[in-house]
Design goal:
Elements: E1 14-16, H1 25-33, E2 37-41, H2 48-62, E3 70-75, H3 83-92, E4 97-101, H4 106-113, E5 118-123, H5 126-134, E6 139-143, H6 156-167, E7 171-175, H7 181-189, E8 194-197, H8 199-202, H9 211-219, E9 225-228, E10 236-239, H10 258-261, H11 264-269, H12 286-309
Parallel strand pairs: 1-2, 1-8, 2-3, 3-4, 4-5, 5-6, 6-7, 7-8
Antiparallel strand pairs: 9-10
Helix pairs in contact: 1-2, 2-3, 5-6, 7-12
The chain binds flavin mononucleotide (FMN).
Length: about 300
């Protein structure tokens, strides 16, 4: 189910996924205005002061508007040097949705629930989803094969079928290669309550990445996406064209480490995108993209209900 605090505030059952060095206030504000939950990783601002300034700016820009809520993403892991301070700031500013990765605790969900916020947790395995549900999260983001960033390896239909009964009345969100309203409708038909869309939002005017990165996403196909652990120590979807560039691989250091993983020096040269790049055919404004997603989603639902009638 979609939580009550989101119902009626989303024009499509979707969130724009948090993306390192890609999602910032402009993308978040335009996404929320387009009726899609907009999110960004707290670490896209290099200091806690900068993070707080973004929270205040986003709130001010959305104030009084008929817009979707926004969210932030944090890695809950002992190697994240900003974990405690970013959590405190998120709670102080009552961030509507906290997206957590790597770990989650009951203390965190209690703190977010105390002001009416929601916690959605990224999971690539059933085991991690169960742990997060035990910590009382409000939703699971099922990160499947073909997703951008640190993707999972499971087929979405297989993963959705296993997770749906476990998630019950909470929110099940599907992530991985969803870039248009048709795929969104497919995910909902397959048992998801919402979808999380990353790669498609890279190719927008408001995304923070370079024009070269946007163009590469536009020109790439599924054949250009390489799933490898070599860059960061855990499996990630990488644009093949960037893999020959020099980079300091945290993987060479031996084990996963958030502080090294989020080094802009690493991700300045090596670019991630999901297998859905083939569905990215233009670089558009976020407003146009959200509008288009609504139209495609509606048309896909009408097509399927037409099949029922037939
Ligand atoms: C360039 C890029 C950067 C990403 N950075 C993050 C991140 O910092 N934190 C995070 O939780 N997920 C990150 N992700 C994963 C997304 O949040 C999301 O799970 C994924 O993009 C969904 O799949 P899709 O790209 O195929 O739509 C990133 C994805 C991409 C493509």
């Amino acid at each position: 189910m979609i939580p009550e605090s989101l119902l009626g505030r989303l024009k499509v059952p979707a969130m724009a996924a948090p993306m390192f060095l890609v999602s910032g206030p402009d993308l978040v504000v335009e996404t929320c205005k387009g009726g899609v939950l907009g999110t960004f990783p707290t670490l896209n601002q290099r200091t806690p002061e900068g993070y707080e300034a973004w929270l205040i700016a986003i709130r001010n820009r959305l104030s009084g508007m008929d817009a979707a809520p926004f969210g932030v993403q944090m890695g809950i892991h002992h190697t994240n040097p900003r974990m405690a301070v970013d959590l405190d700031l998120s709670i102080k500013h009552q961030v509507p949705v906290l997206v957590t990765t790597l770990g989650i605790t009951r203390e965190i969900t209690d703190a977010v629930h105390s002001y009416g916020g929601l916690v959605f947790h990224d999971a690539t395995t059933v085991k991690h989803a169960v742990k997060a549900l035990d910590a009382n999260v409000d939703g699971i983001i099922a990160v499947c094969a073909g997703a951008g960033g640190h993707s999972g390896t499971y087929n979405p239909f297989a993963f959705l079928s296993e997770l749906r009964p476990l998630v019950g009345d909470k929110t099940l969100i599907l992530a991985g290669s969803i870039g248009n309203g048709q795929a969104m409708a497919g995910a909902i038909a397959g048992g998801a309550d919402m979808v999380s869309i990353g790669t498609r939002f890279i190719a927008t005017h408001e995304s923070m990445c370079s024009d070269e990165q946007k163009r590469m996403v536009l020109e790439s196909t599924v054949q250009d996406i390489v799933y490898t652990e070599e860059v960061s120590g855990i499996g990630a979807s990488i644009l093949r064209q960037t893999l020959s560039r020099p980079f300091d691989a945290p993987a060479q250091i031996g084990r996963f480490d958030v502080a090294k993983e989020i080094s802009p020096r690493l991700w300045k040269n090596i670019w991630s995108a999901g297998q859905g790049v083939g569905a990215v055919n233009d670089i558009v404004s976020t407003a146009d993209l959200c509008h288009r997603l609504r139209g495609e989603y509606r048309a896909a639902l009408e097509r399927v209900s037409g099949l029922v009638a037939a």
